Structure of 3-isopropylmalate dehydrogenase:
Amino acid sequence: APKKLLILPGDGIGPEIMHEARRIMDWMAQARGVRFDISEDLVGGASLAVHGQPITQQVIDAARAADAVLFGSVGDPKWASAGFDRRPEIAILKLRQELGLFANLRPAKVFDSLVDASTLKPDVIRGLDIMIVRETVGGIYFGTPRGIETLPDGTRRGINTEVYTTAEIERVARVAFDLARKRDNRVCSVEKCNVMESGLLWKEVVTDLHAREYSDVELSHMLADNCAMQMVRNPRQFDVIVTGNLFGDLLSDLASMLTGSLGMLPSATLGAKGEDGRTPALYEPIHGSAPDIAGQGKANPLAQILSLAMLLRYSFDMQEDAAMIEQAVSNVLDRGLRTPDIMSAGKTEVNTAGMGEAVVAE
Amino acid sequence: APKKLLILPGDGIGPEIMHEARRIMDWMAQARGVRFDISEDLVGGASLAVHGQPITQQVIDAARAADAVLFGSVGDPKWASAGFDRRPEIAILKLRQELGLFANLRPAKVFDSLVDASTLKPDVIRGLDIMIVRETVGGIYFGTPRGIETLPDGTRRGINTEVYTTAEIERVARVAFDLARKRDNRVCSVEKCNVMESGLLWKEVVTDLHAREYSDVELSHMLADNCAMQMVRNPRQFDVIVTGNLFGDLLSDLASMLTGSLGMLPSATLGAKGEDGRTPALYEPIHGSAPDIAGQGKANPLAQILSLAMLLRYSFDMQEDAAMIEQAVSNVLDRGLRTPDIMSAGKTEVNTAGMGEAVVAE
Ligand SMILES: CC(C)[C@H](C(=O)O)[C@@H](O)C(=O)O
Ligand SMILES: CC(C)[C@H](C(=O)O)[C@@H](O)C(=O)O
């Protein structure tokens, strides 16, 4: 039976860039006879507009039934003041939680042909290749108690709780160590153990797991504030970074921006292997929905296309097809084609569709 | 009566760089007849070694009685595994909490003569001048419940609680708005209101205060992950940033590193004006204790010296003396003198004492 692929374009530039990823799938079907069982649905603001909620139970069930989810991006200023429970972002938070997608893999990689796109000096970032493994179903994003309460004297208090258990820390650390073994074999674990007990436990659990099962991997520890600095000072010191939900949110965005080309970076979020042998997985560009340029043909579809490649590689074990797409992207860049976000002097500017077509042509 | 100044050199390079700051004070006494009532005491690892605790009640009382505290830095790998309650860092956390030092002011400023020291391209950071106002006595650093608990099944859970009240948010926002009025009149408030209710309350309170009392100041809001990115993409878009304790920790370190010269940056942490009209205040370099280079004469004393200038300016209203010190530092840099951390081709390398002497000479 063909693999089940659920496509969730979402908001803003999501639909445009997803359109280009579908172009690649169409080509794969035509040229290589690869068939998927594809369905598509609404999330984020797009779902709010139709269903009054950022994601329906039906979409969650479809995601659970799929072999992999290809996600665009959510977020729409239209819903900015719609209340905490009606944020488009809930779509992605719910998918993570309901499917148990606990490990967000975010590569920050500098393409040689785009080394000048960064605000950092080329010498500092040439060849940069960091993999951030961010925990995504625990920590302060989901801990309780949470909320805003009003005290008798009228004072209001906003509360969130950071909670991590040994098991939650261990499983994400395992993903990081396993990945490191296929890379440069180094893991840096990041927390604030000097002020937070949850960080102290994090450090202990990672250290123990390392001693028990991964002593062949080089492990270091770094405070989150120092990590933010080191990323700017000398980002190439890192191979794999593993960290909690909140630090991972900031640090992975920071790492991406070092590359200067957010529009190029895919990500994967993986769950635990189920009894049926399947690993729930969602793939998405690391950039947001960019409402300011939506519908103008300016968006860079490459992160979405590379997310598809990542999906083929990790979820469908289609290494050859994944490599083919990645090579095509690399060739297109070498030929000098650029969407506006990565445009520089002497290159050829193309729009979203132009870029998608060029990748297909390659 | 002369102003009471408490000096706490701390660990690592703290004592060396404080020595150079004292040189300036000696010169002020000699050349300008400025007298302070100076006392000095132990904090951090230095205090742990003598008193078995990172800060004694006596030092806290002395800090409370002082008109201002000049702090070096704390942190010593010797005490890394001494247990959560015996971390050198507790010294600074306790001082913040006991003296109610709720607003940490951290300027990230690029000196023209050091524009090449950054890993960012000169075009991106030339003239950079950001002021980060970080809340320092609330949030997840101090919220309860906190700790590590063991569940009946042996699972351990690390817990920390982020709490912010309307009053805590308002007073730090006020500091930011007041500062903005003396600068470029723009405040960017940073939180994660899309996932945290404490951030949602933060945003509401800042927005309300702005509407009520500061509508002449330009206010914007940014998510913390986006802020980390924007700092790398285009840091000069910011004037004053106001944010909570944890985000402020990461973002202020990140902002400092953009300048490429941590050894140059001072900071102030201020409390609320007391009934006696005094505002508790602590001044310290933003860099850490750098144990790796301690005792080698390599440390850059300028952040400590500029912290003294900041102290004179904010706490003692000695504008002229502060400006004099700042000008001397600027002249020394223009003359090409550099400690190893900011050394570059064609400049003259000096050691810690050499730099201190040069500032005095100017
Ligand atoms: C959309 C938002 C809730 C999300 C997060 O904060 O996790 C995003 O920033 C991300 O990093 O995937
Ligand atoms: C020393 C440490 C507790 C402190 C903090 O995390 O607040 C430091 O990093 C700082 O930024 O002043």
Summary: The two ends of chain A are 29 Å apart (CA to CA). Residues 119-259 of chain A form a domain with the Isopropylmalate Dehydrogenase fold (CATH 3.40.718.10).
